[in-house]
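Contributing new records

If you add data, match the layout below exactly. Sequence lines come first and carry their own label; structure lines follow with theirs. Keep one chain per record. Anything else will be rejected by the validation script.
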Amino acid sequence: MRNHDLSKDTVMLYSGGISEGDSLHPESPPIYNTSAFFMEDLTTLRDTDARGGYSYGRGTNPTRDLLRQAITEAEGTANDDTLVFSAGMGAISATLLTFAKAGGHVVANKNLYGETIDFLNNYLTEFGVETTYVDFRDPDEVRKSMRPNTKIVYSEVISNPLTYVIDVAAIARTAHEGGAVFCIDSTFTTPFVMKPLESGADVCLHSLTKYFNGHSDTFGGSATARKELIAKIRPVMLLLGNSLDPHNSWMILRGMRTMPLRIRKQMENANKLAAFLESNPRVLRVNHPSLTAHPQHEIAKKQFYDGYNGAILSFSVADDFKLLDMFMRTLRFVKYLPTLGGYRTTLSHPVSSSHQDVPESVRLKMGIHDGMIRISVGCEEIADLTADFEEALKVF
């Protein structure tokens, strides 16, 4: 039994449990809510610095390190390491700043999180970094956009809100052929759907605010990569001052303990809810990779684990704001929330939130119209979920 490999669900319960110098072995690790650690003498200081020990809290903290260890075990390998940030955008911005040098070029998926696009367009351009946006569903488009000065290829596994899926391994090969670092945001997928580093990605990013925490009560972000890449990102994180604080580190680590239970239930519900909505005559279209009508259904089957496809879906109804308001008011327990990944089912309206600053003509070409609703599926009983949506959809 000692040689038995533990399942990833069991590893999630025990990883990141004991910090350096802890001889009490508490069931729940403590929060090291301190800004610094005192040194007995200069020899202690030098020894601590040499081994990367605990000195000043912005750089090192035991609670933060426990979370880093747990994420690395969930997402990476023994050759990888993780940094955790004050928010998902902290992880994204520090990573982009690390590898996008002045005069460099980025090839990015045109179906990206809006604030990532804002950072590329409004900030990296100030440093002479140019970004080309293409459709990553076609690896040839990525290949054609590569230049000698392309430093980063950047995408998400599943896009928001249309749930487009990219072939991670194919894009990784293209990026590496061009000598670029392939950075991928896996927030929507989590390690229970796929591990992008296994498919060739160089840096895997997460908004820990979402599924890792799972309770909509804290913020955080992470970057997992080979240790030599993390060593390059770390000084940028420290200089930007966006490392995660001890309390939120502890909150997210606690959330990780229930990830296997939450995520699997959410994804099972998402598959069933997508099929239910697809069968409803008032629904014009449903976007979820579990559906055979989804354009990347076969890619999802090939690269995602165990028939899971994430817990985010979107669907389309009539473009009528009055009816949309009636629909939202009719729902019994599903409510609007400007985030995702929590244990309860919530909805958002892309035109009024994530894509509100996108010109209408561009939005419509993307397929995002007034009647599109995005659902973050939770852990409720599926019969309760379908009944709630069935009743509310009668307004259309």
